[in-house]
Amino acid sequence: MTICDQTPGNKALCIREMNVDDLAEVFHIGEVVFTAEYSPSLYRTWDEYEVISMFNSDSELCLVAERDGRTVGFALGTTVEKQHSAWKYGYLVWLGVCPGAQKLRVGERLFKEMKRRMRAQGVRMIIVDTDADNQAGIRFFTKLGFGNIQEHVYMTLNLSPRRKKRKKPKNDFCS
């Protein structure tokens, strides 16, 4: 299903389910949006396998936004059912919008369609996460109705080999 609308003076924006031909463009937008500067400690990596995996497992929750025949944003989601819980959860894993289209309510429109689809699948709560320093992201999700902000600590350990300087051995243990 494709949902298109046009506001006076603006070009039509269409939200539709992603197809295999969209994979490369979605990946490219993610490369532009999800950089080390965006989130230096990004605990999930943005790579082609993530996009393909989401598309293969939950294609009905993989959406793209088009304007003038160009992909300008995407949303990738999934659902989670926990044992011993009556609730089904939705997880908005990635939401990316081209920098030039971020003021056109593309993200809001993508989320609105994602929420509609998740609700139709029986989801009772949608979860998102973002870096604690991503003030724009936090404001965006708060405007969409998200609340109950919880902070988590993610720690990193860089396993890249380091060049060690050779030091002269010392005679005592502590100096």
Secondary-structure blueprint:
Layout: E1 2-5, E2 13-17, H1 23-33, H2 48-57, E3 62-67, E4 70-81, E5 88-97, H3 106-120, E6 125-127, H4 135-143
Parallel strand pairs: 5-6
Antiparallel strand pairs: 1-2, 2-3, 3-4, 4-5
Helix pairs in contact: 1-2
What brief labels describe this structure?
175 residues, alpha+beta
Give the gist of this structure.
The protein is of the alpha+beta class. The chain has helices at residues 23-33, 48-57, 106-120, 135-143, and strands at residues 2-5, 13-17, 62-67, 70-81, 88-97, 125-127.
How would you portray this structure in words?
With 175 residues, the chain is α+β, with helices and mostly antiparallel strands. Helices cover 26% and strands 23% of the residues. Strands 1-2-3-4-5-6 form a 6-stranded mixed β-sheet.
Sheet with most strands: 6 strands, mixed
Number of helices: 4
Globular, elongated, flat, extended or rod-shaped: what is the shape? globular
Radius of gyration: 21 Å
How does the helix and strand content classify structurally? alpha+beta
